[in-house]
Amino acid sequence: xxxxxLSFIILxxxxxxxxxxxxxxxxxxxxxxxxxxxxxxxxxxLFLFLFIFIFEYKIGLLNLFYLFxxxxxxxxxxxxxxxxxxxxxLLQVFIAILFIFNTQxxxxxVRIDYFNSLLNKNLFLQITFMTFCFLVxxxxxxxxxxxxxxxxxxxxxxYLLIFIISKxxxxxxxxxxxxxxxxxxLLIYILNFLxxxxxxxxxxxxxxxxxxxxxxxxxxxxPLISPYFAILxxxxxxxxNLFSIFRKIYQKKNVSxxxxxxxxxxxxxxxxxxxxxxxxxxxxxxxxxSNFFLLILGINYxxxxxxxxxxIFMNIVIYTFCYNLLIKYNLLKKFKK
Length: 337
Hints:
The protein is 73% helix and 0% strand. It has 337 residues and is mostly helical. It has one domain. The protein is globular and about 50 Å long.
């Protein structure tokens, strides 16, 4: 059935492009306009919701309702020009709080006794902490979706890593569903490579929201797994967001304003200055391969908090080093021109 569904998605996406439904409007997104001039379908979020509706048999109507709300919010961001970032953030907070409270999507063990004690005694603190995590991931995913393949490829790696670890260690996981998610994302990845589809804000929001729920459920179902495994598999979009916030504060800029100074933008500009063909796709591929090697280290240490923290720290150091190196090189190259 999955292959029939994927064939249907290809056909439906071509109809959407032909009829100019869900077309990508780069004027609405400053961080995407820097690297894209194609008008493509932004139906990635809609297709993801259809996938979850059809194949996630145990998702439940309540969870599906919240996923639909986050999809609608993303669609509004895609279609409404000058949709206030503050209003979007408030709506994200509202949806996340209701979802976390009603579904009890919580992490009770952070492997630090003092914080465990605080969290277990204070439901408000738990919900606040989880809401913060959801928001950082959602908006970070939207940031890294600024170039082709980057966000979709990263989440393929997330689900692939979970699949491998579960298969090798016989962990509790619906392997068939996980494999279907990977196949679905691979199709979107190929269509994105061909400039036939984008996730759009709707797709980025929904993919991040659903994956956060999926990863937390996976960890809670397998006490052997360190909670820091969740941080490892989701570190890149989360750190992209946090790094951007602190960078803007340091530069005395408006934190909520979009810009083109993210890591992927700097890699894109570097490739462009080097006259590399199709720098958009090439940038995404470089980041996908880089993250593959950074994430694959976690396979043997999914239950070791000490090793996971070390890998996460190493990833952050590599990111920061590459970012600063690219900034200096690109500025020098542009100055010489």
